[in-house]
Amino acid sequence: MSNRDWIVLIGFLSFVVVYGIWKTRGKRDIKDFLLANKSTPWYTVTLSIMATQASAITFLSTPGQAYVDGMRFVQFYLGLPIAMIVLSVTAVPIYHKLDVYTAYEYLEQRFDLKNRTLGSVLFLTQRGLAAGFTIFAPALIISVLLGWDIRLTIFMIGGLVIIYTASGGTDAVNKTHLLQMIIITIGMFSAFVVIFYKLPSDISFLDATHIAGKMGKLNAITFSFDWKDRYNFWSGLIGGTFLALSYFGTDQSQVQRYLSGKSIAQSRMGLLANGMVKIPMQFTILFIGAMIFVFYQFVTPPLFFNSVETENIQNSLYSAEYKKLETDYSQLHAVKQENIRGMLDAFYENNDGELDTYLQNIRNMNISELEIKEDAKDLIHKVNPQADTNDTNYIFLSFVINFLPAGLVGLVLAAILSASMSSTSAELNALASTTVIDIYKRLFKKKASDRHYLIASKAATIFWGIYAINFALFANRLGSLIEAVNILGSLFYGTILGIFLVAFYFNKVGGTATFFAAIIAEIVVLAYYFFTKIPYLWYNVIGCITLLIIANLISVHRLFSQNRGTA
Amino acid sequence: MIKNQSNNFDTTEERPPVLSSWNKLYAVVLFNLVFLIVIFYLFTKIFS
Known about the structure:
heterodimer; A: mainly alpha; Sodium/glucose cotransporter; 2 domains; 22 helices; B: mainly alpha; 1 helix; rod-shaped
């Protein structure tokens, strides 16, 4: 990295930390600290919701996802706008009118204490672990860039986020999100422009798009239904709606964002605007990944994108073997490049016969490339049995470091760090709220001064920060980060959503029936996870529907028994 | 005992910052979703 990059990066990091501390001045009130005194306008709510969801994982892992698997991941977000409408109609007015600090407070008002505690504990478990991922992602960048041990970078970045979040409170989180989203947009747009600038001069934007499409990377929509297929239209629309309902309606890290809205209308508008812009934003990020794929069809990509592991093997006994694989890979790539150009010519000449031949050649060469990559991974494993051989998360990063001009590298890294800090701060903020409001204040210390709870909130932020750092230390071995986060969420979200749906829509179902149904639904979801191969988006549907059915059955059974008793 | 609070999904309170009613705004969000799905489908078909 050049000096200019370091100036941009360090300048940004310092700014965020100082801004967070500065914003804590005069905040002596728990409502101000946790809900920003309910004074946030809708556009800040929207940006804050987006910044919370779009973590560094989004920018590191999503382009890599498109590079490896194509753009079909965009279907994951198809249910989101529907969920935004449902929540605007239901959850927003209820939460606002009851003037709650957390979503789980509502569960006690509707059911009883045990449901509130169950909802809180499920949230704390899931979100506490997810916060670990959000800290891990930028730590990964620094460790690859500087060659530092990743544990050191996790501690360093986690520490900075804790200081900023414990000092800032919700108001600072929301206002910083605004600036962070601006940096993120500029950073990603710059990367997008550079990709096209770096393509060979005879390859136009349209050519690049055709190449990506012919090589199966622009598969944005697939209507065919298959249980084994993780992302298709149906899993995205149905499973995605359930996941988004649960994430935005019951996850305190998001609920806290729109609870800080000035009014019901401002909170609603914040959610609906998110429903309009989220899918195009994800599409753009995935498209960047697809274009990086095209770029690497004309520039030989590294055999393995993780430069730390590559250096390790180059300095090992297997160096000669690895070098041979690199040479084979490079030669194969040169032949493939000729075939891609031939394919493009055949396409423009409408020569279907030649086009099919070229496409078949390219497919065969892709298989050979994958075999060489597998051999390389085997060697990497021999040198370091603990090595992470999934390099999806390094693809975008590798491109940024090696091909972006000085200054822009720092800007993109600042954008990625912005994303990480914004979501981590929101997560720690929400974890602290739930711990203090739903657990500490409700179960252990019901009457204390406002200042006491304010200090408890800051202490809880620090506690959850340390917890997340510890989990981040294990995140390195969990494959594609964005998928790992979503799988983790899906294990719990269906059950949590089911509890809230019963609360909203099934007025005759009581707290005990809901509580036991939730326990059974969670066991069912975990059984599906451990013993079946059903894609994870469906866990949200399974958990939620199971809970709804069992809660209603228990409720009907109890009513029936009571009627028989009184007859 | 069921402590049920009445769930009043009231949509009439405050007008949205844009457009004249919430129902119109919800329709715009849904239309936008359908539009994106159609565009993505065409995008997939044209470039595959």
